[in-house]
Amino acid sequence: MFKFDTPSQRNEALRMALTITLCMLIGKLFDFQSPVYFALYPTLIMTKGKDYSWRGFAKTFMPTFIAASIALVISEVFSEHPFVIWTISLLFFDFMRRRATNPAKQGAMLMPTFNWILIVIFSQHTTMDMPTRLHEILIAMVITTFVAKSMIWLFPVKPAGKPRQMIDMPVSFENRYISLALIGGGVAALMIVDLISATFCLVPVIAAAIQTTRTGFLNVVNQRFQTQVGGCAIAIIFSVIMANHQSNIGFYTLGLGLLSFTISAVMAKSQGIARDTHADALLATMLPIQLYITSHQIGLESTFLRAWELSVTLFILWGLYHLTALINNKGSLQESGNNGLSTSHHSQH
Description:
DUF2955 domain-containing protein; membrane; transmembrane; transmembrane helix
């Protein structure tokens, strides 16, 4: 499993695993209110990032921090008017979707949109100090940047070829409507129902909603079912192994490092769609570990609940795809039937 074809593959796996492990440990050991950001940001930056310069990190994190800050201001100002918060959120989602004119921009839309949703939902249903949460978001970004830069310097990777030129395509009204319906509907449901644990289920919803084709939508749903639910399964196995030992920082660090390195190694040796699949699986595995394992509990119940909520969410998306396909086919059959009747009527005359 750990046999690499090139030194670059080995270095890539090492720097991914070490960055994620170190950031997650910092989030746990320093007792942050929201340690999940110390798993979310390093995993996304090391698996999805392309530009690892200081400017590249700033360009990646700045839209996310700005979105979270604006969401916090709106949530505080209109705290007694959730419908206003939801309406402004719709305008923000539409603004982001209109700017996502190619696959790279669609990927860049994920973090700002999800962080906006996190702030809005948590401010509605928790007594958490949201300005402190915003401070921790900034701290997590800064720590992720410095840890990642250190690992990139320690483990250099041979640069890949020139990035493929992406052609901007105009976002149609239909694309915008589908995105608003799915993302806005999900946010509305979570604002009405106090189900904080389901907030992270909106990640695959956003990923599916920004697709421009029906095939792309279905592929995302199928892939996310494998990676998201599969990631929870891996996290459950890790939790069972850690049972009664999670407070032993040495044992926990060794286990976390080996797990992250194993998935990172498989990802580093993969190409194309397989690489994206392993990247999603890495994120889906690290998030429940960071969210639910503490020095006092291993969080099995919460991880099982997360897997169930993700399964239900993805099944709803799968059902919507097949329902709309059925409606479209029915409409096509009716249209062809009407055309046939019309032709028959004219031939009689």
